[in-house]
Amino acid sequence: MRSAKLVEPKKIMLYENDPNPNVGLNEVLIRVKAVGICGTDIHVWHGERADVTLPRIMGHEFSGTVEKSSKNFQKGEKVVVDPVVSCGVCVSCKRGYPNLCSTVKCLGVQVEGAFCELIAVPENKVYRFPESLNWVQASMVEPYSIASEVIFRGVPVAGEKALVFGAGPIGLGILEGLKLRGLSVMVADLVESRLKKASELGADRIVNGEKEDLAQAVKVWTGEFGLDFAVDAVGNPKIMESAIEMAAPGGRIVVLGFNPTFAQVPELFLVRKELKIMGTRMNCNRFPEVIEWFREEKVHPDAVLSAVYPLEDVQKAFEHIASDPQNTLKVVVTL
Ligand SMILES: [Zn+2]
Ligand SMILES: [Zn+2]
After folding, report:
1. Is the pLDDT confidence value at 258 over 90?
2. Per the count of CB atoms within 10 A, which of 172, 209, 253, 309 is most buried?
3. How far does residue 219's CA lie from ligand 1's centre (Å)?
4. In the chain, where the domains are located
5. How far is the CA of 161 from the centre of ligand 2 (A)?
């Protein structure tokens, strides 16, 4: 089969005759049709992830068809795959948190992913998607599952005021999810084109942190009460610190970055306002909800799509993002 492997930082090579994957017990063989590139892939491409060994077939946001009938799927069915790889037997897995598995991995990061023609995946991670979706749209179910996880964990309530830091594909997905729950949402970023997109997707207030004092804007917008809900979709400890300062009594702050830098968290602020700070990691069985969002056209994956490249040009697809990361949202590779 054809595959694309990261062989050294910033260098992806195409292989024409890679062996087809072995299909294990309870696995399904998928013919890949579209694969999105995510921020994690860009970090891997730059060689910034110590947990990734090379060569590596990246790609964890993908759609495809069932190549060979299995217990629960027929050949030709259109599917998406939850990329969280878990052992199924550790304490976290048994408690129902595969994303917190003691040996958790993500397809395309610590194990081979989807920039290739065929991939074998556990049957219980495979989901059918509606006929109305095209391959590229379906590949975006996974990034929206990150947004769904943030919302599930943070328990936003209709009428609350939320701030999403960062208007990349994940931040914009969180914005859409929060609007579905009936919140007023402010989005902060430093890039005008991203803020414009946030407006189009229903942000009630946008703030360019380079042109406007964000703390002051939050004060005015919330009538001095503060933020009920804040999400750091950038992954910057300074953002968590300012979210804590701007939070309302009873506020919740959700973080999802992988930044190892310490943040200063004053205990007094947490106690005085009874704040909750929550981490979210990948997604915990959120695909069914997100597929419903897509089926009912409640979210707008096309709005975050910046470009589509064929597999032959996967290197160009990564260079496209790396050359203009600020103005590029989702780039998808098709097979
Ligand atoms: Zn991703
Ligand atoms: Zn486990």
Report:
1. no
2. 172
3. 33
4. 3-128+300-334, 145-279
5. 36
